[in-house]
Every structure is written in structure tokens, then in C-alpha cells.
Amino acid sequence: MTGEAERGAGPLCLVTGATGYIGGRLVPELLEAGLRVRCLARSPERLRDHPWAEAAVEVVRGDVTDAESVARAMRGVDVGYYLVHALGTGDDFEETDRRAARIFGEQARAAGVGRLVYLGGLTPYGVPEEELSPHLRSRAEVGRILLDCGVPTAVLRAAVVIGSGSASFEMLRYLTERLPVMVTPSWVHTRIQPVAVRDVLRALVGCARLPDDVSRAFDIGGPDVLTYREMMIRYAAVAGLPPRLILSVPMLTPGLSSHWVGLVTPVPASIARPLTESLRHEVVCHEHDIARYVPDPPGHPIGFDEAVRLALRRVREARVTTRWSSASLPGAPSDPLPTDPDWAGGSLYTDRRELCVDAPCASLWRVIEGIGGDNGWYSFPLAWAVRGWLDRLAGGVGLRRGRRDATRLRVGDSLDFWRVEEIERGRLLRLRAEMRLPGLAWLEMYADTDDAGRTVFRQRALFHPHGLLGHAYWWSVAPFHSVVFGGMARNIARAAVSDAAARARERAPAP
Does pLDDT of 91 surpass 70? Predict the structure, then answer.
């Protein structure tokens, strides 16, 4: 364990999924409410650069499918937040969800935890469970397992969550902004009750202090019930866009529509499919009983238009604290970079570049940390674009995930089809590829100085091939490295010189 979790004198809360969209936002809300926080994370280092990481937050390394690590994390806990799910990890994700929920409930009961809180999905009223999408069916089953575990449990059931960076909001935003005329599936006529992320977090925090005799599910939603078509029309109005023409086509299946969403938005088909499948049935709240225990303050629940305004403001001000891509994409490589120079794990191909830069190290680092997203990759844009499209066609994430923040990165951030694996602020940025590859790949960029005090840019691309196909892949792309990686190094160096010159002009006294 790391940290001391001594802030506040309230109950100790265990948060799973703290590297994800909701969990990463819940932790500071719990701290602000005077509660103590412990996080269970498979990769604790990914929490290191969060703004609340310096607060008294404990971190336990572990996984919800590992009973021993869950038991260790549960010691002394008063409230356990279950904010994880195995969606997209394979065809057996429902069994993984089932097993993890049982472990969490059993270990909570054994540790004497007083309360569990789970954020699940809002299920349609009167629809047999076997007719639900696998995504919603699994969410409902996890809720039942936790309710039956012998620990008082609050299951919050939400439909579409509207907040900056949420997958549902990003899907809505990009579909509406990029397509003034769109042919849509029939699910655009399904009635939905969206909820602002602020109201979700408020309910989650409030559940920490529910009476001991409350153990049940609660529907949570905003004041508006809308079809997806109406949501797109109202989004366009709030965002100041011209009216959208929306035509629905019944023959677009959830599978086809998920690929359509994947082509138009940054949300890959693997995540878009469960979102679209969940919209086949009406998802509307049938009660608002949570208000008896967590009263609504003035102005809450937040309406759809205001939730969109708040989310857009955060996007435009670059204050998106977590995104749907904060969590690792299921199936993406997670092996750390081998650090042993004589690594015996097999072939490790390397492309190295080094250039002296006529600019301060600080200017070079600003360019390095600002790479990707709207700033691009400083080399052969068409080649990067084609590689991104090929990755999307293969079911990967492509380039359009962009960045959470335009200027600053933190460990665990997604960056187009890379993931930030390590940052040594001012010196090193290491990215791990999450594109579809026959092997594992990393890209390192250093801002350094040589013995003469000159600024030096060092760049290293590494590839660990899997099988014969991996070796063939490396040698097939090796002839293009001088253009792609060599051009990148040269253009980053030029950008650093330009940055230094621009800052010098800003500091120069006015004539």
C-alpha cells in the first residue's frame, strides 16, 4: 500500500475503477466530502499524476478477480464502491463480471464492510432479462449479486451519462457535429432519460451515508425524457450548430450501426456496440426514491441542455479531468517496456534518432509533451492518418481518441492510438502502442543535454514481435522509418526552435 488515507475523519471508502471515467472523478468528490479513500488498481502508477494523488489516498495493487488482493484492500473499509466491468474483454465477459462481483461481495462480507455502492445500467421496465443486450444483462446481474451478498448495497441505475469525456457524450457530440445530414438506425426514436455526471457523482457520494437498513436499487436520471434524435437536435442548438437533418433507416442493425459510430466518432466499435445495443429498449426511470436519502439541492437534477452546456464548457476550456478512454481498452497490450538492456525475452527491434537542438530543453519538452491530438505527430501526416484508418478497420482505436489535455499529459492518458506509460517531467515521455499489431511497441522521446550543455533530442522506437508475422511486419515497415521517425525527430527539433523564438519575442520589450 501507498499513502496514509488520513484526510478527513469520515468512513474509509474503497474505490475500484479509479483509473476509469467515473472512478477518477469520484475520488476527489469523496475527499471533498470529508471521507477517506483507498483505491484498488491493477496499475497503481497510473494514479500517480492525478491532481488528488498527493492527497492522503491509499493505493492497493490488485484486481477484482483476485480474491486475495480484494481481501487485502477490504481491511478496515466502511464503504466499497464497485465501478468496474469486464465489457469487451471477450465473449465470456459476462462470466468475468459474475465472478468478480461474487469475489467483491464475499470479501466485503468477510471483512465486515458496512455498505456497498454499485453504478449499473438502467434496464427497461417489463422487458425479460434474456431479451436485454449482453451489456445491460450483465450490469443487472452484477447488481443482483451484490444485493444478495449479505452486505447492505445501493445499486444506482443510470442510462446515458452526460459529461465531458464520457463515451455517451463523445458519441453524441461527434455524431451531431460531424454530420449535418445523417442516416440513422431506428434506435434514434427510443426514449431515454439522460443524467448529468454531476448528479451521478452526487448520488454516489451520498450513498456512503445511507442508513444500514437500506439495501436496494435506485433509478437515477435527469428531468428530461428524450429520444436520441431529440438529444442530437438539442445538442446542435446548445452548441450553436445549424439544424440537423436526421433520417432513420430500420435495417441498420446494432452491429452495423456500431461500425458506423466507430467510423464517425472516436469511440471504437467495441465500445459503441454495447452503447447502441442498450438503446434498443426504452430506458426511463420509474422512481426517484434516492431523493429521500440524498436530497436534490436547488437546480438538481440538472436538465439535458444545461448538462451539455457544462460539458462543452469543460471541453472548450480543456478542463476534462477524465475521459472514457481513461480506462485501458480491453484487449490492448499492457506489458511494460523491458528495461534490461540484455533482455532475454526475445527479439527487440529498435529505431534510434538523436539530434542537437538549438533551443532550451524546456522548449523541447513543451513540444514533446504536446505531441498528438490536434498537434499531430510532426511527420508524414498522410501515413499516420492511413495507419489510424487501418487500425479502425481492424477493430482498433485509431487516431481519433486524441488527448485529454492539449498541453499536459499524465501516466495512463490515452494519446491517439498510444497510452502514456511513463513520464519523467521535463525529460522523458514513453508511449505504449494500443493499435492492432503483431507484437508490442513503444515510442520514447527524451529532452536531454550533452556534456557541452547543448540540448539534445533523443527518440527511440521499440518493437517486440510476436511470431513470424511480427518479424515480417517490422521488416516490411523498416524502409519507411527514415521518413516517419526521421522526419518526426527533425520536425520536433524545428518546433522546439520555433517555440523558443516565439517565447523570446514575447519577452522582448516593446519598441
Answer: no
H/E run at residue 174: helix 167-178
* Burial bucket for residue 293 (CB in 10 Å: 0-12, 13-18, 19+): middle
Contact present, 281 and 127 (Cβ < 8 Å): yes
Residues 262-275 have a mean pLDDT of 65
What share of the chain in percent tops pLDDT 90? Answer: 43
d(CA 276, CA 265): 13
Separation between Cα atoms, residue 333 and residue 256, nearest integer Å: 26
Best CA proximity match to 216, nearest among 138, 115, 304, 299: 115
Q: What are phi and psi of 165, to 5 degrees?
A: 90, -10
263: phi then psi, degrees, rounded to nearest 5: -75, -30
Strand duo 36-41 + 57-61: pairing: parallel
In degrees rounded to 5, what are phi and psi of residue 461?
-105, 130
Cβ(58)–Cβ(37) below 8 Å: yes
Q: How many whole angstroms separate alpha carbon 89 and alpha carbon 481?
A: 33
Rounded to two decimals, the pTM is: 0.73
Please give the Cα distance from 392 to 400 (Å, whole number).
9
User: pLDDT by residue (tens digit) across 117-161?
Assistant: 999 988 888 788 777 777 788 889 999 999 999 999 999 999 989
Task: Give the DSSP letter string of 460-474.
Answer: EEEEEE-HHHHHHHH
| Phi, psi dihedral angles at 30 (to 5 degrees) | -65, -45
Sign of the torsion formed by the C-alpha atoms of 29, 218, 116 and 208: positive
DSSP-derived 3-state class of residue 52: coil
